[in-house]
Amino acid sequence: MEEITLHENERIDQLFTNEVQVIQSSEVFSFSLDAVLLAHFAEPKRGYKTKLIDFCAGNGAVGLFLSSKTNGQITSVEIQPKLAEMAQRSVRLNNLTERMEVLNIDLNDSLKYLRKDNFDTIVCKITIPHIIQSIPFLTLT
Fold first, then answer.
1. Distances in whole angstroms, Cα of residue 141 to Cα of each of 62, 71, 76, 123, 138
2. What is the pLDDT, as a whole number, of residue 133?
3. Least enclosed by CB within 10 Å: which of 5, 29, 37, 106?
4. Where would one find coiled-coil regions in this protein (predicted)?
5. CA-CA distance, 52 to 75, in Å (whole number)?
6. What is the pLDDT of residues 105-115, one digit of tens each?
């Protein structure tokens, strides 16, 4: 396993039912039950050609939890540099660099970096409807 450096006020958390380790910090948003539930109820395809995207990924917890439910590629998108960097280190910590990438970009700019109609599964933990509705290619259902 790759040696991962923790920064000040960071810790590694792990759920008892899951071997995934997530770097968290008391200075920024940490995952909680909503991330665990979203990953539990999401049903991505298992195939190697499957492509999953996690918008508003935070520290990457949802994508990391979903990595055990698919053999495909997972892309996490996070606007905050600190959280995106923590997510990237968590990807390395869990030896998922071949299957997961973290993009530190604004959702509104995501079509500049991501191909349209390229993903089988989209997850987004954000629960503020007016923000979701302001993103032209997402639909709140």
1. 19, 26, 21, 12, 10
2. 63
3. 5
4. none
5. 6
6. 998 888 889 88
| Contact in structure between 120 and 52 (CB atoms under 8 Å) | yes
The pLDDT of residue 82 is 97
Task: Say what the pTM is.
Answer: 0.86
Which residues have C-beta within 8 Å of that of residue 117, sequence separation ≥ 6? Answer: none
State both tokens at 108.
Answer: 């509104």
121 within 8 A of 64, measured Cβ to Cβ: no
The b/e string for 118-134 (b: 16+ C-beta within 10 A; e otherwise) is: ebebebbbeeeeeebee
4 token code pair: 């991962």
What pLDDT is stored for residue 141 in this prediction? 46
In angstroms, rounded to a whole number, what is the distance separating the alpha carbons of residues 3 and 27?
22
Q: Is the pLDDT of residue 83 over 60?
A: yes
Fold designation for 10-133:
Rossmann fold (3.40.50)
